[in-house]
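Q: Predict the bound structure with zinc ion.
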Amino acid sequence: MALGGDALRAGEMLRIWQAGRCAVCGKQGLYLVKDHDHETWLVRGLLCRSCNVMEGMDSDESGCFADYRRRHPTVILGVRLEYAGPLFGAEDPLLPEPRKEAAGT
Ligand SMILES: [Zn+2]
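A: Predicted complex:
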């Protein structure tokens, strides 16, 4: 699936803004997945796997997940990013930084 320049820019903004941190727990260095709204299919932010699973099971109107759902990173940044799938692909704007061993070969 090809993504336009706006999606690439939005994804890059999100990735840079979160700086490798989970949008809910704030932990850094964990594998992050794209969390999306299942009604709109728009990306809300990048979460660690644990928070992503717990967010899906949480239906409380208050608490950290409710706060996240009301004010998630793409709302804060004012960007719109359609969810293209759970896996990172070559055209995914949220592709992690290239690994050092892959550079300069
Ligand atoms: Zn987390």
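A: The mean pLDDT is 82.
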